[in-house]
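Task: sequence design from structure.
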């Protein structure tokens, strides 16, 4: 029997609502206990809050270089950022946030996993769980089968799910940072200028052809990870996959239908809170 891709109508609506909360700083009413997810990304730190029914309540994001490829390179900076974001959310919500879950790229060492957990605890949260990023993404998308490819700032992480169980995780060091480096080299400019260029939607027609080889590399990483598995749909998430046509390259390279949800940057952070 042919298995169709999961219907993302409701997850996409939820993701767009979460995107609105992050962009506007608004807060939604909630029912039951609040659930908190801390996403220590390579380019951003994001704290997401949902209610007990996994409805988005609030979110806050800040640019940060404190974590690189799942490794905490500025411990004090990461703790300070999470602590100030926690205080800002508590002020908006009018309640204290005491417990949180965080996430790691698949395949990082136990020591690096512990360091990420330590950041969350040092910011005055009780750490309830550490999940891997593609698994968190699958929770936000409500999918039980297929491959989730989480393209972050430093790495491309892959999780393969079957009947809701993760049967494989893999991670390779190619991500949005590599796009920025290629762009900087091509334009003979600084990485800071290249990063701004990469993030400007108006520049996409000029940027995407230059970084396309990096996207091809990401697709080949995913192809290698899933080649021995029966995968019918690939779901791409993460900030580095926001370009139009990103999923088309994956689909052509791997030959498997590839779906990009709404607000791909926010899929994993929202899923972390849902796993709390």
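Answer:
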């Amino acid at each position: 029997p042919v298995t169709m891709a999961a219907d993302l109508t409701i997850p996409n609506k939820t993701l767009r609502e979460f995107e609105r909360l992050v962009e506007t700083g608004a807060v939604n009413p909630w029912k039951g206990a609040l659930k908190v997810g801390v996403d220590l990304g390579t380019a951003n730190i994001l704290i997401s809050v949902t209610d007990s029914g996994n409805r988005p309540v609030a979110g806050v994001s800040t640019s940060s270089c404190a974590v690189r490829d799942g490794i905490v390179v500025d411990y004090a900076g990461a703790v300070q950022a999470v602590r100030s974001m926690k205080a800002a959310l508590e002020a908006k919500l009018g309640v204290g946030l005491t417990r949180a879950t965080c996430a790691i790229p698949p395949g990082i060492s136990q020591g690096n996993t512990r360091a990420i957990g330590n950041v969350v605890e040092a910011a005055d949260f009780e750490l309830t769980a550490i999940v891997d990023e593609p698994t968190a993404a699958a929770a936000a998308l409500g999918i039980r089968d297929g491959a989730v490819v989480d393209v972050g700032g430093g790495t491309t992480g892959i999780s393969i799910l079957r009947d809701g169980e993760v049967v494989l995780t893999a991670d390779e060091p190619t991500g949005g940072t590599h796009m920025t480096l290629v762009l900087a080299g091509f334009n003979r400019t600084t990485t800071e200028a290249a990063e701004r260029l990469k993030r400007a939607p108006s520049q996409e027609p000029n940027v995407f052809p230059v970084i396309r080889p990096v996207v091809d590399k990401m697709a080949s990483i995913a192809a290698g990870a899933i080649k021995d598995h029966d995968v019918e749909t690939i779901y791409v998430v993460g900030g580095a996959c926001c370009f139009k046509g990103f999923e088309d390259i994956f689909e052509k390279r791997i030959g498997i239908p590839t779906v990009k949800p709404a607000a791909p940057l926010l899929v994993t952070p929202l899923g972390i809170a849902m796993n709390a």
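Residues 176 and 240 are 5 Å apart (CA to CA).
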